[in-house]
Amino acid sequence: MRSRLCQPPWILAAQGELSQLKDHLRKGDNLINKPDERGFTPLIWASAFGEIETVRFLLDWGADPHILAKERESALSLASMGGYTDIVRLLLEQDVDINTYDWNGGTPLLYAVRGNHVKCVEALLARGADLTTEADSGYTPMDLAVALGYRKVQQVMETHILKLFQSTLGPADPE
């Protein structure tokens, strides 16, 4: 069995092994944004596994949250898929592309909807996620919520759409 100190930085990030990850990164070697064979960086792995302290550390150390893996997976999409709302918010603060799509047309919002992650859906919509984007399957986020029977997610999106209409139309004319 390999010692944790011999583990690559991606595994350490996914496992939240922060002290060992720090030791690796202090060695230099430009490991902070170095991808594995799938194109996943330590930040993408930490985001996918909900390791918020590791995500914070990596961002503070200069990890690039805009990197896409080989099949266009992003830290934001994988955090959304896992329902890690705090990580989603951290990444959105880094001005990542909220509507980035992966190999099958999946966006962070579509993944949050598919996972029935209400808080992630709310966070993404609050920052301007596109409700009209279709995955390769032809489903929009609303289509997906309805098809899966996720009423709360559907209600969140309906409320968001209503607010968009109200802000576009402005106050009612008092005739």
Automatic annotation (TrEMBL):
GO terms for cellular component: cytoplasm; nucleus. The keyword Kinase does not apply. It is found in: Cytoplasm. This is DNA-binding protein RFXANK isoform X8. SMART domains: ANK. The lineage of its organism: Eukaryota, Metazoa, Chordata, Craniata, Vertebrata. PROSITE patterns: ANK_REP_REGION, ANK_REPEAT. Its main location: cytoplasm. ANK repeats lie at residues 38-70, 71-103, 104-136. Coiled coil: none annotated. It comes from the Eukaryota. GO terms for molecular function: DNA binding; histone deacetylase binding.
